[in-house]
Structures are given as structure tokens and as C-alpha cells.
Write a structure and sequence with these properties.
mainly alpha; two-stranded parallel sheet
Length: 116
């Protein structure tokens, strides 16, 4: 990067945890890309999706990836669907019908809500 724009610190309403603040600063400053750091908004798929929709590169995982892997149940469904070794759990806590969780991804790369 040739330069950077620092997001202000302070309360979550006005800082790096606030997606709207980050998007506004990115737009006002005409940035090409945003690296969100760690935690807070960096884990929010809305930030990635919004910036990408504005033509601003989000340096991090895509929104759909964050949506799936940021949710423990969705991540388990994805892992078991991909045949990754994991502890079987179907949400019934030991019932006779327990088996691997399975899910089909949508076009956006997310797991449909009815899977849950």
C-alpha cells in the first residue's frame, strides 16, 4: 500500500468494530482495498460483501466463507459434507437418528437456513 486510512478507536459505535464507519471511511477516501485487522468487523460478512459490492477489495475471507465458518453448526455441516473427520452431531443430542450433518451450498456459498 502507498498509504493507509486509520479507523478511529473508541466505543464500538464509532470505531473499527462498526461496519458502517469502515465503509464510510473507505468510500470517502477512495480506497482500493480494506484490511480489517482481527476480530470485530473483520469477522462480519456484511463488511466483506458491502465492500466487494462497491468494488473495494476486502483483504480477507469472502462473506459466504465467513457466514459458514463463523457459525459452529454451519462449519460442522460443511466439514461433514466435505467428509472431513469430525465428531458426528445432528442436533438431537444422541438420538437414534443421529448421523452426519449434510448440507448443500447455495449459489452464494452459504448453507440454506432450512438446513438448521
Amino acid at each position: 500500500a502507498d498509504s493507509f486510512v486509520e479507523v478511529p478507536g473508541g466505543k464500538n459505535l464509532n470505531n473499527y468494530a462498526n461496519v458502517d464507519v469502515i465503509v464510510k471511511l473507505a468510500e470517502e477516501n477512495g480506497v482500493d482495498a480494506v484490511w480489517p485487522g482481527w476480530g470485530h468487523a473483520s469477522e462480519n460478512p456484511v463488511l466483506s460483501n458491502t465492500l466487494n459490492g462497491m468494488g473495494i477489495k476486502f483483504i480477507g475471507p469472502t462473506g459466504p466463507v465467513m457466514s459458514v465458518l463463523g457459525d459452529k453448526i454451519a462449519a460442522n455441516i460443511l466439514a461433514q459434507t466435505a467428509k472431513v473427520a469430525s465428531i458426528p452431531w445432528s442436533g438431537s443430542y444422541g438420538g437414534e437418528d443421529d448421523g452426519p450433518l449434510q448440507g448443500e451450498l447455495t449459489q452464494e456459498g452459504t448453507i440454506p437456513p432450512e438446513t438448521f
